[in-house]
């Protein structure tokens, strides 16, 4: 594990770069919707958040095409999306409206369609919850051209750690991250161990090949924005698999 002062320095550099560069540029893409009028069909998904309300994300969410999903590294990131009236299909826009969504799922290619369909390789596409999509498009259209950019995530409360696995394997879902919204690196520490580096298993789930049952757990996370936080004593020694533990700290970048 890198020294804390070095990780902190990386965070300062990342913040300075963000301040200097401002928001990312708008890029062209497309958007559809799924999950029904109440968004209930968007729960779960390839990021592994389960119930999106319990994980802090709610109904304004989207499944990303392979190009944007980045093998799960984009899980939790936030995107501002607006309908593009200048392109074909723009007549179905709700002009002047922008909605911010969280990446919570993968929209896989459909190779029964040419080039894998709208979520095929090379296509930046958002399959949004219907309630989020309806802010920017006319539902009857089904698909609209959009402009999008990654933006800072604003979250309520602290980072949450959902724990699964077995006696000798820990699988942790890192949820409700503010700032950049996504995890760049993660560590876990038991009461009787040093810091153990974790690796991404799938989506927003990070794994450690360690037996930590019966030990209180602390976590350390570096966001993709470069900020490093230690979440000390995040779960008590009597923690259980299938439970989620909420902290009071969160990320700014």
TrEMBL record:
Keywords: Cell wall, Cell wall biogenesis/degradation, Glycoprotein, Membrane, Secreted, Signal. Residues 168-247 form the Expansin-like CBD domain. Residues 44-158 form the Expansin-like EG45 domain. One of its GO terms (biological process) is cell wall organization. The keyword rRNA processing does not apply. The lineage of its organism: Eukaryota, Viridiplantae, Streptophyta, Embryophyta, Tracheophyta. It comes from the Eukaryota. Its main location: secreted. Belongs to the expansin family. Expansin A subfamily. Causes loosening and extension of plant cell walls by disrupting non-covalent bonding between cellulose microfibrils and matrix glucans. No enzymatic activity has been found. One of its GO terms (cellular component) is membrane. Residues 1-25 form the signal peptide. SUPFAM superfamilies: Barwin-like endoglucanases, PHL pollen allergen. PROSITE patterns: EXPANSIN_CBD, EXPANSIN_EG45, PROKAR_LIPOPROTEIN. It is a peripheral membrane protein. InterPro entries: Expan_Lol_pI (IPR007118), Expansin (IPR002963), Expansin/allergen_DPBB_dom (IPR007112), Expansin_CBD (IPR007117), Expansin_CBD_sf (IPR036749), RlpA-like_DPBB (IPR009009), RlpA-like_sf (IPR036908). It is found in: Secreted, Cell wall; Membrane. This is Expansin.
